[in-house]
Each structure stands twice: as structure tokens, then as C-alpha cells.
Design brief:
403 residues, Alpha-Beta Plaits, alpha/beta, homodimer, 3 domains, 16 strands, Dihydrodipicolinate Reductase, domain 2, elongated, 14 helices
């Protein structure tokens, strides 16, 4: 009998409860017939109508001090007290599984180190890509591959907004309101639309792939607030779509180049067809080539399904480290922002002669809006693109094109 | 130090050799610093120019009787002697990993049972989807989900042929010759184009998902030899493509419905955009919803990368069963061929009045070819579709439409 606790009875926590209750046989089969029993649900709120009121506690110490509890699911979200709770549990020799990307991206290095020392596990499959199996398959891919590149649609809210612009011709503002009305976007949507959520997720994936901590605050992050319906239409004219991409490249020198940015993506990329609130992560390995993982990146049951799989894995691997971790690098491992070149899609009110004078060879796109010029540059570093664009008159749009 | 053997030095075997040699550090990191050393390569042929001639043996017993060897990679292909070798190794308490889908689909139940008894592992990640991580992620998804459905593009050769028809307007015959010239199709392409390869793969996935052996010979299998360029053009007119799909549905009664068939797929399905020799497997779980795994389904390094990941996993789990297996069912678990309805796309030289008389409500598609009628039926069982179609004059095409 394995006894577990859920910490935080919000959307994900109640999903984990439902799955443990409804799929008990399955779970038991997965751990060789051993029953997984839920012993505590921690929440500061009251749930008077819950069918199992005796499970609830407001006291974290009930879980911490209960020697029977070997695994806790931290699905509270936020940094505090999630950090303190997780640390205390790991130090007490209990495994913790989580959907909390902010915590993993911020304190993951320390928490993974404690888990390793204590020979328990800190698992975070649900922190990236919701229900999509990505952390473990990437770890598995990694076994025989050097990961070369990761490009992911990591945030369902922004993908839904862009998709509504692409398919329904809505403006950004209308699409955002629509997403809020449907519950896909928060009332304060900044974390999503400004790219911070995607940034934490690519930081986690880049840390895992490189084996060294990639600090999300070192990742240049641009959201989708500047993307207009006209940009989307230009992209369509180029047989492309605009997607918010969390991007990381891994050099042979051990350096990591990473950005979060809206990018123009050709329709022949498997990422281009990822619609609505779906997520997809394209991983390129030196042996396996491109592999992609696709599915619902959020939502109660998809996310809870990943958390539950981690619970089962933690039960199976009690007192045996899964060795999914990264370490703090001695110096910086971030490659400079100019170490990688992209082609850029640019719209400007300047004329073709000036454009050619500044950018040299470039590929013009048929105007959709009178008076402006639209073109795609040759590959440029970030600084080159900035410097050259600054010399143009009235720049409307500057977007990276994914290779 | 873990000592391993490669059995069969063909395309995949030499790829495994390359990865073990080139990525030794990685592999070692994955197994906690323990070195993985290749001790034998079994092949009946001579490789006089190989850099490590001392590794080669023609004697299977060298491997079987060497107590130091704990893991063998069976990448010989074919049923015999691969079956006898694998069985002997497992019975001797060694783990075996394989890319041999035919062997897994045919003797998997017995071999998995022996592995379980002996507390070793028989792993087969490379047998489906080449380098795509699918067996383990599906096993992981399974933990918290009841798998409802699997639909996969499981054969790169047929996908390449169909893709050439779709994108380049080639006929089936020309596309097949092109695939043969490029090395994507065998000189005798029957196993691919008649669907047998896809059939073995969906049988493996269905066995894994249901936990019970699904015999590939019980799966109705239709290849792509009857698909014409005109069919492909009609599909395009319906905003769809034609793909060869390995399909399985899992009823709450424990029954499995499975077929291999070319299907008409709407462009909004993530499977529709899978091009060239790529594979993709769409798995639907009751909690997670749709997840898709995409990548190269064949090729030296992609497949070898999956085999190597299994070697590492077998080394990590020596004398500890991974519990990825299925059992022989007591009776049949196959649902009847009429237990599931599909809509059908039909072309005929019959007239609209007769068609409506036979099929009732149906959706006509604008004719691309004069004199014929093209339409999509309401959902029908396999027998209903056959019976009704038999009453039409001059049926040109009858294809399932994927829901």
C-alpha cells in the first residue's frame, strides 16, 4: 500500500483526485498490484460538500510528519509556500511530483539536488506540455542522442489567440477577449501573452537537454501582443503561420542559445498545423532527427493525467533516483544573443531602394497594404537585425522566420 | 561495467555500433557512470575492414554462454533464428532488446512471459515508429488513462508514396518506382504497400494498450495498391488527404476493434500533415485526450537510437522487470468487423437517383471525372458498406473516412 497526498485542491488537484478514484485498477496494475491510497488533501479552503471530507487538512505538518506518506503531489502553483513545502518533503525523504512550472524553473536545481541526495524523486512531467508525455520521452531520446534543437508551441492560450486570428480573421484584441470568455485566458493575461509562461517551460526543457540549469531570466522573451491581423495575413500569403515559439539550440561547446519569440513558420513544418489550445514540442536529436510530441498543454484532466503518471512512477521508484535532473553550471552556459542568425520578415513604409541599400539581398513579398513594403531578409544576428531595421523609415513589423 | 552484444550487423546493427562508440559519454551518464561495453557482434558474414574485427563472432553460443553479457540487441530481423536466440537468451536470464516487429507481433506474448518469469526485460521500442519514443510514452500515458483509440501512420514507405501522389501528382506506379529508386521501398514492396508491416505494428500497439495479445492475423488489412491519383484528387477537393492508417479502438467491454486501411482524413487532423517517410501515432486517452508522437519511422540512426535507448534501459533495470507486457487472452478479444461504423467515400458510374435509393442520405462531391458520381455515406458497418456498394453499378472506389 502506497499512501500519497495531494497539496492544493484546485483544477489540477481535483483532477488528480478524480483519476485516482476512477482509475484505481489501472494504477494498481502499474505498480504491480500495490494499491495507491490517497491519505491527505491539503488546502486552506473548506470543501464541505466533498464526498471524502476526512481527507482534507489545512496543516502541512500532517503530511510532513506522517511516515506512511511516501509521495506528495504539489499542485498548488506559485512559488511560496510551494517551495518550502517541497523542500521539507524531499528532505524528509518523500518524493514530490509537480505541475508547477514556475517552481521547477526557479528552484528546480536545488530541489533536484536534494531529491538526489535523499535518493527520492522530484518529478515534473506536468510542468511542460500539460498531459503530453515530454519530460520522460526527451530524457529517453537523450540517452542515445545529443539534442541539437528544441522548438515548441508551449502555451495554449497564445496558440488559441493566434489560431483565431489565422482562421477566423479576428484581431488580437477580439481573439484575446474570446479566449478570456472561454476560460482559456486569465483576466490578467500577461503571463501568457507576454511569453513568460512559455519562457519558463523552454527553460525547463533546455535545462533537461543540456544537463545544466538554464535560468529563464536569461532568455530573451517576446510575447504576441505586437502581432497584428495584417501580419497574420502576410504570413498566409507566404504559405506560413505565426506561432509563439520557445526555442533552444545546443552548441557542441555546451552553450545554449534560447529565446521566446513569435515566429513565421512555413506550412511544411509539423508545428504549423498545431491548432487551438494544443501544444507541440519538436525535438531534434543528432541520431533520431526530428521527433514531435503533441497534445493538450493544459486543462484539468490532461494535466492531472501527467501528475498521476508521475505519482505512479514515484511509487515504483521509491528510494531509487530516476536521474532526471540538471546541475548548476560553474559559469554561464548561455550563448550570446548574436550567436545565432534568423531570417526576418519586415514590414516598413520605406521604399525598395532603401531596403536593398540597407539589407542587400532580400525577398520581397507582395504588398497587402498600399504604401508599405514587406520582405524577408537573409539570415541576420539579433543585433544586425536591430541595427538595420533602425535605419528604415517607419517599421511596422519585425518577426523572426523559423528555419 | 555492462557488457552487451549486437546480433545482426545490418543497417540497424551498424547504427547501434556507431551510437555506442560515438555517444559513450552520454550512455554512461544515463546509467550512473557505468560504462556500456560492446563485447560481441554476431553475424554470419565477414566484415574484414571493420575497425574492431575481434568483436565479431558467428557463434551464437559465445553470447549465450558468456556470463558477463547481460543485454543483447536482436536486430537481425525475420522470425528464425531470431525467435530461438531471443528465447534462449531470456531463459538464460539476459535481457533482449529488439527492432524486430515481426517477432514481437508473432512471439511477443511468449517472450514477454519468459522475460517476466526470469525477472529480465524484453524491450521493443524500435519495433514501432522507428526512432519515435512511443512504446514507453504510451505505457506511461496508460498509467492514468484508459486508451480509447489509436490511429497511426505506421509505414513510411506507403506514406512517401501517397505523399508523392498528393504533392507531386504522380501515379501510384510512378511513386512506387521513385520510392524504390530512393531506397525507401524494397524491390519486393508487398510487405509495405499491402499493409502487412503496418498491421504488425498496430497489433503491437493494440496488445500493449489492451494488455492482451492482439493477433495480427485477426486484423483486416488493406494496403494502398488500389488507391489512384483520381482518389487523391477527390480527397483534395474535400480538403482531405488519403493516408494508410493502422487503427484500433478499445471498448469498455475489453474488446478490440482493429483494421489497417487507407482512409480519407480531413486536413484539420494532425495526422493529415505527416509527410514523406515520417510516421505519427495519435493516441486518445480518456483523461489526456489526443496526444500524438511524430518522427522518422525508419532509417539507420533513428531506429538504432531507439534500440540503444532500450539497451540503456535494460542495463538500468537488470533483474527488475519494466512490466511492459501483455498476456494471452482466454477467449478472443477482437470485436466483430461490424461493431464499428465509418463513413465511406465512394465513386461509381451509377446515377444519383440509384445512389440515394441504396444509401439514403449522402453527401455528394463535385465530379472531377465526367460520367461518374462521388459521394460520402452516412456511418455504416463494414458489411452494410459492402452490401450497399455491391448494389451499385461500376464501383470505382470505396474508402473509409476517418472520424
Amino acid at each position: 500500500m502506497a499512501k500519497v497526498a495531494i497539496m492544493g485542491y484546485g483544477t489540477v488537484g481535483s483532477g488528480v483526485y478524480d483519476i485516482i478514484k476512477n482509475n484505481a485498477d489501472h494504477l494498481s496494475r502499474s505498480v504491480d498490484g500495490e494499491k495507491i491510497e490517497l491519505k491527505y488533501i491539503l488546502d486552506i479552503r473548506d470543501f464541505p460538500d466533498h464526498p471524502e471530507p476526512n481527507l482534507f487538512t489545512k496543516e502541512f505538518n500532517d503530511i510532513l510528519n506522517d511516515g506512511e506518506v511516501t509521495v506528495a503531489a504539489e499542485v498548488m502553483g506559485g512559488l511560496h509556500p510551494a517551495y518550502e513545502f517541497t523542500k521539507a518533503l524531499l528532505e524528509a525523504g518523500k518524493s514530490v511530483v509537480t505541475s508547477n512550472k514556475e517552481l521547477v524553473a526557479t528552484y528546480g536545481t536545488e530541489l533536484l539536488e536534494i531529491a538526489r541526495e535523499k535518493n527520492v524523486n522530484y518529478l515534473f512531467e506536468a510542468s511542460v506540455g500539460g498531459g503530453i508525455p515530454i519530460i520522460r520521452p526527451m530524457h529517453q531520446c537523450l540517452t542515445a542522442n545529443n539534442i541539437v534543437k528544441i522548438a515548441g508551441i508551449l502555451n495554449g492560450t497564445t496558440n488559441y489567440i493566434l489560431d483565431q486570428m489565422i482562421r477566423k480573421g479576428k484581431t488580437f484584441e477580439t481573439a484575446l477577449k474570446d479566449a478570456q470568455a472561454k476560460g482559456f485566458a486569465e483576466r490578467n493575461p500577461a503571463a501568457d501573452i507576454e511569453g513568460h509562461d512559455a519562457c519558463r517551460k523552454i527553460a525547463i526543457l533546455a535545462s533537461l537537454a543540456s544537463g545544466k540549469f538554464v535560468d529563464y531570466s536569461d532568455i530573451d522573451t517576446e510575447g504576441i501582443t505586437a502581432v497584428t491581423l495584417d501580419d497574420v495575413k502576410y504570413a498566409a500569403a507566404m504559405d506560413s503561420v505565426i506561432k509563439l515559439i520557445g526555442y533552444a539550440e545546443f552548441g557542441e561547446d555546451g552553450k545554449v542559445y534560447s529565446i521566446v519569440s513569435p515566429m513565421v513558420i512555413k506550412s511544411d513544418s509539423p508545428l504549423s498545423g498545431v491548432d487551438g489550445v494544443f501544444n507541440a514540442i519538436l525535438v531534434t536529436g543528432d541520431c533520431v532527427g526530428d521527433v514531435m510530441f503533441y497534445g493538450k498543454g493544459a486543462g484539468k484532466l490532461p494535466t492531472a493525467s501527467a501528475v498521476t503518471a508521475d505519482i505512479v512512477d514515484a511509487v515504483k521508484h521509491r528510494e531509487r533516483s530516476k536521474k532526471i535532473f540538471w546541475e548548476k553550471p560553474s559559469g554561464t552556459i548561455m550563448a550570446g544573443k548574436d550567436s545565432r542568425k534568423f531570417r526576418y520578415f519586415i514590414r516598413t513604409n520605406d521604399n525598395a531602394e532603401n531596403i536593398r541599400g540597407i539589407f542587400g539581398k532580400c525577398e520581397f513579398v507582395d504588398n497587402l497594404i498600399s504604401g508599405e513594403s514587406a520582405f524577408v531578409t537573409e539570415p541576420l544576428t539579433s543585433s544586425e537585425a536591430e541595427d538595420k531595421t533602425a535605419r528604415l523609415r517607419d517599421v511596422v513589423t519585425k518577426l523572426r522566420v523559423m528555419a
